[in-house]
Amino acid sequence: MSGKMDPDAAHTNDFQSMEVKGPDVKDKMLKVKRSDEEQKDSKLTMPFYMLFSFADLLDILLMIVGTTGAIINGLALPIEILLFGQLTNAFGQNAGDPHATVRKVTEVALRFLYFGTAALVASFCEMAFWMWTGERQATRIRSMYLKAIIRQDITFFDLETNTGEVIGRMSGDTILIQEAIGEKVGTFVQLVTTFLGGLVIAFIKGWKLTLVILSTMPLLIAAGSIMGFMISRMATEGQEAYAEAGTIVEQVVSGIRTVASFTGEKRAVDKYYSSLQKAYKAGVTQGLASGLGLGCALFILFCSYALALWCGSKLIADEGYSGGAVINVIFAVLLGGISMGQASPCLSAFATGQAAAYKIFEVIHRTPGIDVFDLKGTVLEDINGDIEFQHVDFTYPARPDFPVFRDFCLTIPRGITAALVGESGSGKSTVISLIERFYDPQAGKILIDGLDVKKMQLKWMRQQIGLVSQEPILFGASIKENIAYGKDGATLEEIKTASELANAATFINRLPKGLDTQVGEHGTQLSGGQKQRVAIARAILKNPSILLLDEATSALDNESERVVQEALDRIMVNRTTVVVAHRLSTIRNADSIAVVQRGVIIERGTHSGLLENPDGAYSQLVRLQAKHESEQTTYGQIDPDSIEPTAAAAASPSRAHRRNSESKTSFGRRPFDLRGLRNSFSSRNDAHSKQRTSFQMGNEKDPEKGNSADVKDISVFRLVTLNKSEAPVFVLGSLAAVANGIIFPVFGLLLSNTIGTFFEGNPYKVRKHAKYWSGMFVALAVLCGLVVPSQIYCFAIVGHRLIRRIRRLTFDKVVRQEIGWFDEAENSSGAISARLSTDTAQVRCIVGDSLSLIVQNLATITAGLFIAFAATWQLALLILALVPLLGLQNFMKMRSLKVFAADAKVTYEEASHVASDAVSSIRTVASFCVEEKVLALYAEKCKISSKSGIRQGMISGSGFAISNFVIFACTALSFWYGGHLVEQHKTNFNKVFQVFFAITMSAMGVSQSAGLAPDILKVKAAANSVFKILDCKSKIDPADPSGAILPAVKGDIKFQHVSFKYPTRPDMQIFRDLCLFVHSGQTLALVGESGSGKSTIFSILERFYDSDSGQVFIDGVDIKKLQLRWLRQQIGLVSQEPILFSGTIRSNIAYGKDGLVTEEEIQAAAKAANAEKFISAFTHGYETEVGERGIQLSGGQKQRIAIARAIVKDPKILLLDEATSALDAESEHLVQEALDRVMVNRTTIVISHRLSTIVNADAIAVVKNGVIAEQGIKHKDLVNIKGGAYASLVKLHSASHS
């Protein structure tokens, strides 16, 4: 090979054929996608019985007892019809004997009480046991879904899901499933039993009349079927839209610093609102379908009663039917019809639950191609570490047209260190992914100790491998818990030893809480170098046989890199180690070095052997990097002996010496095997139990702050203020609800008057009056057909507009919070996603369904009482006195439930955080085989929520039972007292029945309202949570329009006596009276140890945080007095760990500029960032999907996209935080040249551990112990200061690269 290597040039021969096939492949993919969508449309839901697939024996027992209770409770009302018939006879047959009437009525009233007692027990069993089993099964489904998710192979996450969707389904869809398999099943069984019982009684009492009434049944079934189909379809569309919205929330919150830096808050809210709009349309259409279906059903039902009255009158006149028999038939079928009408919400919940379960159960039953839970496969007694790639072909599933390896061969003998070098995107990290079996090759084999990895037990194999990735992933837990993930049951001593070997102990000990310090979501509370050292400590603790280091020291400063490299060298003894590095100095002592270019090994050998070929690829890389390294000494040499070496450096033996000696290294695999010490650790019984708490989110509540349950109680009526703009729709819906509420009391009034008609004796009068009352029933049917759809549709609009508005306002408020707010564990992306999904859904339930029912029932009660008082005021007054009993019982029930709901909410959010952490860090979870630990912690978090749900079931069951008993008791009391009033000639037979129907209908409304107690309680808790966010005032609000806007920005930056502590670590001082000045157009380089505060300077300049004291000026103006959005638009930030969002490469680059970005601007930025060539090599070019958090791209490719994004922004001030740390030498050189061009006439601050990237800076500042320890104009000025901080860093850098 000769000439300069082109890092992104594709092999022409390799890709010519692919370019020809590209369109065909794309067409095939589109056809497959369309086919999948068509299949999906045909299988939107799953059979209802499948929802109970995960019930255990206790659940089956609970469902049997609950169903038995529901059946008995359902039969209570048909039996009441029979008792009612006896009451009719008692009054009618003894009209001339008042004393006999009272005696007979008293006997029947006592029977009411007996059956009421039975109904009380049955009602409790129905409600309590179905709520209990529903909670248990839903918790199990959540756990099994999470288990199925973390069981899936990485391909699944690349192609089919993302963290936001998973959390949305766990927090939203599982609640819908729970509603479908909980108490609504018992209610439905009860109502169906009532319907069937009513039919049986109707057929016994008069089969002809019953058949006439049932002739309308096919129309009812047709209306119900159409309604069910529409509801199911719209529910699915709504859930998909909410899943899309959940993905946006997760991405924005987890990448909030990037969003804030690029002023992307409004774009995020707009995109979120777009998804909410889809869900709104689906929800309103669902409400319209439900309203029309129910309205048609009730219209048909009332018309059937009109027909029944007319036919009944003919049967009485022509065939000798008794009036009592006709009444029994009509009442029995009426009861059945009412029951089926009340079953509509249950059917809606079932349809919604079936749609929600489709995706969840599909994942649960999905068997991945690479299954970590599959315990089949070979388990070797020991592993030596021979690795071999035999003719491997591999293409990432997400980019099937872009092959990574073709006939790739690689052999790594046991115990050696093999280094992989090459440009970014060449396939180096893919080698590591294939060894870990994150993917399987399409052809060829990967062997470990001569055995195909596919034939090994996957979990055991991964336990033998330690991985330190280029971008370390930490969980939202403490440092101790993160390190402990390396080994089950690790002791504190082992954790401390691992942290010392990883050079992490120093910074950990400086932290106020030490190892117990919370690292924040994805480790955001630590610097890049600190995160990397914790990740290395985790790998050291694992003590693996094979070690995979993917740029393991890229984020470290020179001193830390050297010390950590020595620690890695020690643990690499007698282990097979695969190292990926762009910094060739870190791998020059490797036993074997392979140069990878475009998926092919083009050179292999030792460092010295490869250098013998001056035209070789490796030699070119070395020369290129040497050129950069030599630049640091061209401005002045220092005497290596003039600086006192550190103790660690002086004590460090050569690596070659360690290899050839049997030294007692502290963490070498053979001399000191942690696994060999299991027996000595076994006596530490508490070690494992302590570590079981790992992966926790650190929710220990500050007693001064309280917890989420302590927030002020928000009135549910405050929600109404958010619906002001829907006031006309709300009024119209309320009028319709009032009309609907009056319908049943009026219906009862008509029935009571009809009873007298059947006992008139004169056939002519019977027919005449029956026609009149039949006409009244038809009029009532027409009214019902109009008001029911209007009511449901209007409240659907009100409810769905409210949820759309609350979600948008809440998310808008979330993205406006200061960054410190997101550092709190309770505001993690998982917790916020759960709140936006669950809490807003609860709020919609009360405003949509429940509020509508409340208005309707209030009208029912009012109308019922009015009719009762108009008929017989004495009897009505007695009944009114009994109403407070229901109210008191309901109040006590809600008071008891309140504490349970608050506790459950907190733990539910914690559980969501656990799931979010695990899914977003799936590669780390898989690599360290901690799936079972994650599931155990999730189950532990769900226990409190589950127990709370069970308590709610018991209390709700008690309330439901008492409500039902009171209804029976009131009925008995009303007829008993009515009989006495008849005896005293204060009322008559018809009026007693009018009061009876008024009581029946009103009590039905009270019972339904009492059943809303859990819903109302959940809504109050949800409203508290929502308004807690809405009332939270951001300390640094990017949407605040106030503040100055400078006409032009020069770029002078000044830090004046700045002191700062992170809000989550108030005991740790970061800056102490820090002073710093950067002239406009100047490039300032910040250097110092990892964790010294360099990146914090960027955070304060971007106003992610405000300083505790002191001031920061831009062009002489305090940045607090500048408009925040405008300020951030003047600053371009490229972070150490670039955050990309799901979408195309084009959309990610265009994200840099607020507003319209032209294609020319995007391509120019990509070209300037040296990204154009690798982008054009992709089949879909700029339309290539980057995957969640950019996972489909290599680290170097992601970094170049991030740089292009910053270039598009065209900022006045440029902040580069290790902007080239992830690039190979050639790419770094080209990108650095691009950055040099971009930096012209811009104020630039550069953070770098690689001194070669900052020697050309106009000024250099050393950050140490919270102050600027040293600042000079040029590298050559500072490097010649003997004993100076900068000179010491250069000396360490020179020593580590020698």
Short description:
It is built from 43 helices and 20 strands.
Task: Specify the helix fraction band.
Answer: 55-70%
What is the overall silhouette?
A: elongated
Query: Structural class of the secondary structure composition?
Result: alpha/beta
What's the mean pLDDT score?
77
Main sheet record: 6 strands, mixed
- Counted by DSSP, the helix tally is 43
The N- to C-terminal Cα distance equals 27 Å
Low-pLDDT regions: 1-43, 631-711, 892-902
Give me the side-by-side strand order of the main sheet. 6-7-8-3-9-10
Number of E-type strands: 20
Can you characterise this structure?
This protein has 43 helices and 20 strands. The protein is of the alpha/beta class and 1298 residues long. Residues 1-43, 631-711 and 892-902 have low confidence and may be disordered. Among the domains are: 44-368 and 727-1030, ABC transporter type 1, transmembrane domain (ABC transporter transmembrane region fold, Up-down Bundle), CATH 1.20.1560.10; 1130-1255, P-loop containing nucleotide triphosphate hydrolases (Rossmann fold). It starts with 11 loop residues before the first helix and ends with a helix. A six-stranded mixed β-sheet has the order 6-7-8-3-9-10, sandwiched between helices. Strands 16-17-18-13-19-20 form a six-stranded mixed β-sheet, sandwiched between helices. 57% of the residues are buried. Helix 30 packs across helix 34.
